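User: Major facilitator family transporter. Structure?
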Amino acid sequence: MDRRLLILALGMFAMGTDNFVVAGILPSVAASLQTSVSVAGLMVTCYALTYAVAAPVMAAVAGGLPRKLLLVSALGIFVVGNAISALATDVSWVLMSRALAGFGAALFSPTALGVAAALASPEKRGRALATVTAGLTGATALGSPLGTLIGGFGGWRSTLWFVTALGALAMIGVWSLLPSVPLPAAVRLRERLAPMRDPRVALTLLTSLFAFGGFLMVYTYAGVVLEPVTHGDERMLAGLFLLWGVAATVGNLLAGRLVDRFDSRHIVNAMLWTAIFNFCALPWTAAHPVSAIIALVIWGICGWGLIVPQQHRLVQLSPLVAPLLLALNNTATYLGLAGSGVLGAIVLRSTGGQYLSLFAAAMIALAFVLTAAAHRRSGRPAVHHRATAAPAEAL
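Assistant: Predicted structure:
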């Protein structure tokens, strides 16, 4: 396999680990910095919100910069952000540094996908993108549980130093192995957001926002939600995260096969309704090891299994600007993650963690209403957009 793609995948692995590992160390961070878990949960919000806002903006603003320089700079910002987090003794510094790390991730991720597509021949472009994207899936199945496990033995700062080391290794690899890549065609921000004028697109993106907001609200505060079965043991929580990550990978692969055989709308509906029932039962199933494991497997399959059919629906809606729509879908997902951190913190303060999953189920139910509205509009004429971006850069 191409070493250049693998080093980009390592960078994505670092970004994904940094995004998801925080859920496993929130209680430790809160205790160490003498703050509440809900305030510490803003670490997720700061990272995700910065990523969601900065990714499409910086993709347009930094479109004229050399790709290699941009990737190395993005990883450098990411490394510095995590190093500051690991050294911080005040929650304000932690939150600021999380935003800095999210900014680095926002620069790196879309650029890495664009470079992967540029490096591959047209007939191998899909596999190249899949190789780099596999870094994110690997982060849920391996990076996050490993980081949580490191935190269980060496404290939460050790976890962040682990992520810092991953970013530094990827930065060295990109500098050493990546060749110069031709600059893509420039794309204005207004053109990137133009597809939002199509109500079907907007409703589908809102479906992603609320669905993943619900899924990731529970993940962000999983240490609290699963405390009845883990009893605060971060090593046991790491094992549960590993199981969740494996189920997520299976769900992603399974959804890819199902989309080729069935209408993606039916798959989305099945995933959403299964998740709603699962989260409604979680306050009780989380109290026993066997039922908690079953709930985690269902959660992982439905949460990550939703991504592929959502992407497929967007491509069907407007094939000419499909890469732009997929990039906006990614932004919607991170906005959902950012919002879920804030809403989850409010719920924790008012009701505690036991019934947090019920609020998440309500968000997923709203996502179902939105996806049904998008389907009702499917017979209406679409708003056509000019495809001005090269697929590689739009991603």
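Residues 381-395 have pLDDT under 50 and may be disordered. The CA atoms of residues 264 and 341 lie 29 Å apart.
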